[in-house]
Amino acid sequence: MIRSLDEFRQASIKKLGKISDDPLREYMELFSAATGLSKAYALTNFFEVNSKRFEDLRLLEKYISQRCAGIPIPYITGIEGFWKKEFRVTTDTLIPRPETELLVELILSENRRENLKVLDLGTGAGVIGISIAEEMPSWNILATDISLLALREAKINSLGLKNINFVQCFWLNSIRANFDIIVSNPPYICNDDPHLENLRHEPRLALEGGGDGLDPAREIIKKAKKNLMEKGRLYLEHGYDQKDNVLQILRQNDFFTIRTYEDFAGHDRVIRAQS
Ligand code: GLN
Q: Which atom of ligand 1 lies closest to the CA of 208?
């Protein structure tokens, strides 16, 4: 029962405080999603609580209960920002992470030619491939995923773009064409990592990478040469403690021109190998 706005707000922020370090920001985000008003209104009373707004606040109440049950905000609001725009996300796809923007940034800054062909493996909500496709209209992107449900979301996110296509497949198994760039943020968490408990709302398929977390990376690296053009580049995201292992797998598969990169938090995060 919503009595006064002040009381409702205070009680909501207090509830969110039990599960969040930043309850005010979370309240503002959920408020904005439920009411369609900008976040700036969340902490004010500068709007009339008419019957429509009353419904919005009921919805906000529901969002807050969902959040208190541990559901991540993007799965409640259905959107998450990545690179330069907002993407639709559902529980069929991983929530895009800010560190993954490093892949996009590196690919755009290190590859300046026109008409390149890019393969985005395990695209999920499509954020990597779509961000690149938007930045580089002359490039052609093929994005894959094993999950048809994820591909459906990625296709919706790509509406209006002509230079990206989607195909269902298992890593490089049925890919015949050659590419200038292959990019992937594959699942890389070890199957028994206790950290997975915190990620329980996200699809396991997009997170678990086998006993050491590197099965998908191994599968991609093993086959990447056959689909890379001469001097083509492979960009992979990996876990903060996996750099040396990924380096070793690359060398075992005859990749010798390799560079590694840290994310904004100073963790080893991306590796680039040239064929
Ligand atoms: N970066 C994600 C996490 O640690 C994992 C993403 C992945 O497996 N590709 O929460």
A: 8
